Amino acid sequence: FRLHGSTAEEPHILLECDSSVLDSIQKHLKLYKIRRKVTIAPCPDLSLWAVIPGEQPGDASSLPKCPDQAVLLTPDPRAEVMGWRLIAKKGANLSEIIPGSQIGDVQDYHRHRYKQGVPEGVKDLPPGIALPLESNLAFMNGISFTKGCYIGQELTARTHHMGVIRKRLLPVSFPQPLPAAGVPEGAEILTESGKRAGKFRAGGGELGIALLRLAHVNEPLCIKLGGDRLKLRATTPEWWPKAAAQ
User: Fold this and answer.
1) What pTM did the predictor assign?
2) What is the pLDDT of residue 58?
3) Which CATH number goes with the domain that contains 183?
4) Cα torsion angle, 108, 110, 115, 116, sign
5) Distance, CA of 140 to CA of 168 (rounded, Å)
6) Which of these three, 65, 85, 116, is where a domain ends?
7) How many domains does the chain have?
8) Domain range spanning residue 104?
9) How far apart are the C-alpha atoms of 60 and 51, rounded to whole Å?
């Protein structure tokens, strides 16, 4: 997020990341600083909140005005269905920033994004494994096809222009109760005939996200756990571009 108002001001960029990889991200960014006068430091005095406006897609025109207690209050750049991102000082009064709001559990947030098929963090997007286009980042303002060279740019650009993407991250749901231990991350997903259809990435409760071959999305799917077959169903998110859902 850009915190400076104009190019005349000192640039200040706030980067949101998975807290489990905070140290490695700092080291990675410092590798590319290359004698520039850039300060890279964590912000432990800030808290991040997701503001979700219920089940319907959010309306950016109804964004509450940002009072002094909020460092940033802006529409979530990934998808309208994800509402807004709020960054405030720790201990800020959220009911003053967004009157009438209710504080939910963090699992409510994860359930919402799994239902919408929005990946986040290293469980959903394993570093060195997840590919940007298969992870639907082109739908979520996560890839620029005009900025020039970057690591992986040639493969990403070629795949985009060829238009052939055989696997994508999709929301999945389990119709029957899950085992107490849940579904292991990376579990193989099979078709009814036993063909490999993809892999389960992560989830919570009866919802999750999986990398699936698009050719098998509409087929009955299952995961083998011990001697049991756990059925699951994949869906295409409504917020995706219409052409991508075909």
Assistant:
1) 0.86
2) 46
3) 2.40.30.160
4) positive
5) 13
6) 116
7) 2
8) 19-116
9) 12
pLDDT digits (tens, 9 = 90+) for 168-184: 999 999 998 888 888 99
Q: What are the φ/ψ torsions at residue 48 (nearest 5 degrees)?
A: -105, 135
Q: What CA–CA distance (Å, rounded) separates 219 from 69?
A: 49
89 & 136 share domain: no
Mean pLDDT of 67-77: 84
Q: Is residue 163 part of a domain?
A: yes
Same domain for 88 and 148: no
What gap in Å lies between CA 182 and CA 176, rounded to an integer? 12
Mind giving me the DSSP string for 191-229?
A: ETTS-EEEEEEEEETTEEEEEEEGGGTTS-EEEEETTEE
The model's confidence at residue 201, banded by pLDDT at 50, 70 and 90, is very high
Query: What would the two tokens of residue 102 be?
Result: 């209710």
Ranking 14-18, 23-27, 160-164, 179-183 by mean pLDDT, the lowest is: 160-164
Q: How far apart are CA 246 and CA 242, in angstroms?
A: 7
- 3-state SS class at 190: strand
